[in-house]
Amino acid sequence: MNISIPDRLYKFLALIGLFLIGYSFYYMDFAEQKYFSEIDKHREIRDSVLLAQMQIDNEKDDLIRISDFLSTKYSVENPLLISDSTLVFSRVLNGPKNNLIVSDSIETLWKSYKKHKFQLNLLTKKLTFSQKYLDEEENLKKNYFSNYIEIRDIGFTLLFLGVLMWVMDIPSINREKNIIKQKEKLYSFCQSCGLEFNSMLKYGTNKNKSDNYAFCKDCFRKGKFTNPNLTKEEFITNSLNIKKNKNWLSKKILKSRLSRLERWRDYHL
Known about the structure:
Number of strands: 6
Strand content: 5-15%
Shape: rod-shaped
Strand order of the largest sheet: 1-2
């Protein structure tokens, strides 16, 4: 594949402008997607905290209700104390049988309550960390946008400048093409090697040092072929050796293509 390098300044400016615009939009979108990903994580943790809090509140109500019921039923002192919305459980290890029954029954519920409360504390701490990461990601996103908006604006400026210069240069391009057509036929490919003219493959030169629009500089210089004694068969052989492909179909295709070029058109093998 031949990659053509822009042969005019305005094409180069337009190409760089498009690259900067695409580059800036890509990384701004990347930063935004990353920020939204952190938002989704934060929301998920926050919802988990709310659900865990609901579960804790429900277990707390059950614990108080059952403890009141059992202490009344067995006529013992309630082992569960409420102080400033905080529950305190006094475990009974010895004493009257009824006290032990109530204490053992409450202990199972108490362990479940404490376990879920600990999990809630962990989730709350995780939510705090998540908020911190979210704030950091938001700051990073702002920095990304600040930097890449400048790059984007530079890209638009270069693109606008390149297009403007291109439009202004169209008359001179048309004049140049008309001059070429008046002098001789304008070719897109070298009529010797078949390669496409581009910024890397320049036109050959005539004796008066003017451009020859039929042959490239590698094949034709100063009004002469660089390899005047080369035959069509030798050129085909050399081309196949370079491509490391010597099957009959490739040779036939190459012969057919060369036969359409000016240098080899009237040359019969």
